[in-house]
Amino acid sequence: MTFHLITLFPHAFDSYLGESILKRAIEDKKIAVKFYNPRDFVEDKHRRIDRAPYGGGPGMVIQAEPVIKAVEAALKSSKLEARSSKKKSKNFLKPSAYSLVPKIVWLSPSGKQFTNETGVKYAKHKDIIIICGRYEGIDARVKKAFKVEEVSVGPFVLTGGELPAMLMIDVIARQVEGVLGDFNSREESRIASPDVYTRPEVIEYNGKKLRVPKVLLSGHLANINEWKLKRKK
Q1: Alpha helices in the chain (DSSP H)
Q2: What is the pLDDT of residues 110-154, one digit of tens each?
């Protein structure tokens, strides 16, 4: 799976993608992340991509043309990758398993709420293009140029789409087999509790003995699962 990120600030992703599970997933080629900076698609020597909004108002708006060109570059890259993969493998991913049509996501506070279920659905696409806004936003004509799905990660407004994009990558990448050490370790695929415990069985703090719940020490799987389900509610 390849994530294609349209962003003015690609280095904002360095620390998160350079650590832990996502770093390993990239190194193991389970996922790939590519960046397309709209500034690279303008002829202006100062690489300016923002202008004042029509109709007045504060802030600046990112122009449509450089973003459209960036999305076109991402679409072209996804097509080239698909052709290359077909040549390398006779057992190329079947369309029934993965959609070869790239999903284009437009991050917006007014978009549809992104959930874990959304992440599972998106994980069926081989290529996901995520458009990260900044400033007052992106010229809305980009949405008319492509079929996009407007998505919000929560009921709040952020300074840009980079943080929501990181969140989405994390959620979606977990659904790709091989990203997690054990694919069955996904909490949503098994009975899991929000509370977990490990050794030692008893710890002391401020004169109190804090113990692991007895049911977890019992070895009785049915009772343990029942306890986990109750804690989950």
Answers
A1: 14-17, 20-27, 64-88, 116-122, 141-145, 162-173, 214-217, 221-232
A2: 999 999 999 999 999 999 999 999 989 999 999 999 999 999 999
Whether residue 206 sits in one domain with residue 110: no
| 83 three-class SS | helix
Tens of pLDDT along 44-60?
A: 888 899 999 999 988 99
Counting the structural domains of the chain, the total is 2
Find out whether 10 and 134 touch, Cβ atoms under 8 Å.
no
171 lies in the same domain as 199: no
Which residue do the tokens 């694919």 mark? 183
Spatial contact of 99 and 93, defined as CB atoms under 8 Å apart: no
CA distance 205 to 208: 5
